[in-house]
Amino acid sequence: MRFALVYLLKDELLQLAPSNPRLFGDDSTSIQPLQPKLAKIIQYIHFFLDKIQALLYISIKLVRRKAMNKFLKQLEDEIARLENEKLDVDKKIRALRLAYQVYINDVTDIPETPVKKEGGKEQKVDIMERILREAGKALHYKEIAKRVEKEGYLFTNPKNKIGPVTATLSMSKRFKKTKPGFYKLANQ
Questions:
Q1: C-alpha pair distances (Å), 30 with each of 15, 42, 102
Q2: Dihedral sign, Cα of residue 93, residue 95, residue 96, residue 101
Q3: Is the pLDDT of residue 67 over 70?
Q4: Do residues 173 and 121 make contact, with C-beta atoms less than 8 angstroms apart?
Q5: CA atoms within 13 A on the CB side of 175
Q6: Which of 12, 62, 81, 106 could pair with 172 as two cysteines, CB 3.0-4.6 Å apart?
Q7: 112-137, pLDDT tens digit by residue?
Q8: What ranges do the domains of the chain cover?
Q9: Measured between alpha carbons, how far is residue 135 from residues 102, 107, 147, 152 in Å?
Q10: Cβ 139 vs Cβ 146: under 8 Å
Q11: Which CATH class for the 118-185 domain?
């Protein structure tokens, strides 16, 4: 493309030669005296075409970079949205797991004999029911947690023993809250 433009301009200058004798001297058909000037003009044209080509290359890169930045921004927004969705799903999973644990430990239609877990151990809800039946009165949830631990129940998280006990006491239909922090058997 560059060479076509240079030759087009050269042809235009050559067509001007017969019509402008001051440009070409007395001999209007000869362009020999203009050869150095034409070479210089062609050199300038090549120089400016190189600059134009470089500017076009830079502008194309900028357009591509802007498009790429826009695309990256869209990806970052999508990642943030998916991370928020993941947090919501994780919260729902934790809630469902807690509800499942409470449901597994809260079986209300069982016989009066304690239900044994695998390995021959009683379930936590049965141990708490037996502790309150033996006490014959309402107990504070911390006291119930201590007695459950003394009975040999192994908590999944030894640092948090009160949380599962209070969750079971408040969710199970076997127990009734008498005053803040105190529970008794629902049928007492």
A1: 12, 19, 106
A2: positive
A3: yes
A4: no
A5: 34
A6: 106
A7: 444 444 445 568 888 888 999 988 89
A8: 2-75, 118-185
A9: 23, 22, 11, 18
A10: no
A11: mainly alpha
